[in-house]
Amino acid sequence: MEIVVAVKPVPEAEARLRASADGSGLETDGVKFVLAGYDESAIEQALLLKEAHPPSTVQVLSLGPAARCEEVLRAALALGCDRATLVEAAPSGPLADPMGVARGLAAALRGKKFDLLLVGKQAGDDEEGVVGSALAQLLGVGYAGFVTDLRFDAASGHFRFRRTVERGTELWEAPVPLLVGLQQAWNDPRTAKLPAILRSRKQPIERFDAASALEAAARSLGAAFALPAPRTGAKLLDYRSPQEAAEKLVRALREEAKVFP
Amino acid sequence: MVDFSLSPEAESLRDMARKFARTEMAPHAAECDRTPRFPEEIYRKAHELGLMNLNVPTELGGSGLSLFEQCLLVEELAYACGGMTTSIIANCLALEPLLLGGTEEQKQRFLAPFCASYHLASFCLTEPSGGSDAGALRTRARADGQGYVLDGEKCFITNAPHASLYTVFASLDPALRHKGICAFVVPRDAEGVTTGKDEEKMGHRASSTSTVRFDSVRVPASDRLGAEGDGFGLAMRTLDQTRTPIGALATGIAQAALDHAAAYALKRESFGKPIAQHQAIQIKLANMAQQVHASRLLTWHAAWTIDHGARGTLESSIAKCFASDAALHVADEAVQTFGGYGYMKEYPVEKLLRDAKLTQIYEGANEIQRTVIARELLRGYS
Ligand SMILES: Cc1cc2nc3c(=O)[nH]c(=O)nc-3n(C[C@H](O)[C@H](O)[C@H](O)COP(=O)(O)OP(=O)(O)OC[C@H]3O[C@@H](n4cnc5c(N)ncnc54)[C@H](O)[C@@H]3O)c2cc1C
Fold this sequence. Notes:
The complex is a heterodimer. By secondary structure, chain A is of the alpha/beta class. Chain A folds into 2 domains: 2-216, Rossmann fold (3-Layer(aba) Sandwich); 231-261. Helices cover 31% and strands 26% of the residues of chain A. Chain A contains 7 helices and 11 strands. Chain A has helices at 37-52, 66-79, 98-109, 131-139, 194-200, 211-217, 242-256; strands spanning 2-7, 9-11, 33-35, 57-64, 83-88, 116-120, 142-153, 158-165, 168-175, 178-182, 206-208. In chain A, α2 (66-79) links the parallel β4 and β5. By secondary structure, chain B is an alpha+beta fold. Chain B has helices at residues 8-34, 40-48, 67-80, 82-101, 104-116, 231-267, 279-307, 313-338, 349-359, 366-379, and strands at 121-124, 140-143, 147-158, 165-171, 181-187, 193-195, 209-220, 224-225, 269-270, 273-274.
């Protein structure tokens, strides 16, 4: 099976975020970019399928500034992906536009054979959730989002998967090729082993030039960006046992917030 | 040109160790300390991810890291738990004599199957009658034509109750002092090998420490490392390699103490302001930061020196001695910054103080490190 996973470098969870001086976006200087949880789940799903259905290959694809993308691509290689492709794009411009990202990725994939294309159901940072469905539209393949537990039935050539939505869990079947947006953290993404991390630093990264597709793509651009104003009024309670936490909380609710008598 | 920046490769190794330390080790550190408990499931996972046999070449199933890379990882692990780190890196100490003194055949025979799955090994040098004076060890190795018969007792041996392989130092004749010492590889299941009870320790309580007895244990000559009488030199060359990571371990404990102290100082108030705004606390934090930074750089420098082919006895002794003294001091100041809460087991800093203490004692007590530093130093003046 030929599996492709598209991943987006996002600021690591512990990063201290600031708006850039010109107010156009995040200040990314000194910020470390990593794989988002959704994308880790997507890679884990790809590797599970690869292991269950040999011979399969997993290609990982990332669009964005080279240095950032290279880090997440190498992280994916260390986890067990076979090939990595970088679609280079400047940090602003088309990147701010999910349709632009979809067009860049589609250009890199057009004419290539794949059975399954995996993305996180949304990005780990802006949580837009558009690229997957846009990409499916551009490539003319079927799409399902919010997916967990994707399996392949070799006999029928169909994928079977679950979608857990508010009203319950749906079971689906769909033929290849298919594009899927995966839920986060339903599987337990593996940790890369140390020798694999070292090996991944030496593996080649293919480059795809999507300049023309990206140029044509820029439709909507972010105009200004600001972090939410710091909130005030929160009170932190120090406690050393659950009992103490409960007592202090009840006292604060009763005596200070006067929520109940 | 000197370069203090980390390569992307080194950074990714450090990030991986950091993630493991914070997600797998840290959540269990307090419980393993209190109970105490030897968290084998964590050590198994460390092995699986390649965090265990760091110094063994990849061809033999280890991770094949430079000493510098080992130090980066060890600092991250120790940040989460000193005791677990001691047990995780004990294999490096135990296997180093094999790497330095073993023949190709011995390395293949012992190391390849050992590294292929989760196994622990112990380095058996210290004896009840003395550790610092390793030349005076009393465990006997009697040659009997076909091999050797070992008799004696070792103490304070890390991981001994759980290990499957021991590297053992024993004397052909105590009257020969250093020149009579041989090194052997002894499997745990050799007849006559027994381990004592798990010692009740002040710190590093997630690690396991016990005596190992050898009662007429037969060892074939093919399991001796190097020539007869090479054992003492092998032990010293081993410690030259493994001392620097103890500096890194101490740095990890000190960094954790500093981080806890700084965070607490920003949030604890006295006399109407956070204690971080009192100059006495600021000076404390500033001094702690200097000690942590210097410890790290000394450790990096010692590792770099050894990675460039030098023996690095002076540099590694300085790094180990300084960083361990610093760790104890920084942890002490962290407890002081926490005030009464610092003395309570519910808070993490008193453990750091107890854990830091060991780094001054094992792998060559700091008195011995200073003796070594002075000897190496004075050589340059005489
Ligand atoms: C938790 C733990 C784990 C350990 N793990 C291992 C292990 O895996 N393998 C192993 O072989 N050993 C291990 N050790 C032993 C450790 O290396 C020794 O405890 C250490 O080398 C000191 O030896 P000693 O305890 O016999 O002290 P001694 O040698 O009796 O020294 C007592 C004191 O006298 C000082 N002193 C001794 N000689 C001199 C001198 N010439 N000049 C000035 N001062 C001197 C020492 O510095 C020390 O302060 C471990 C110890 C502990 C506590």
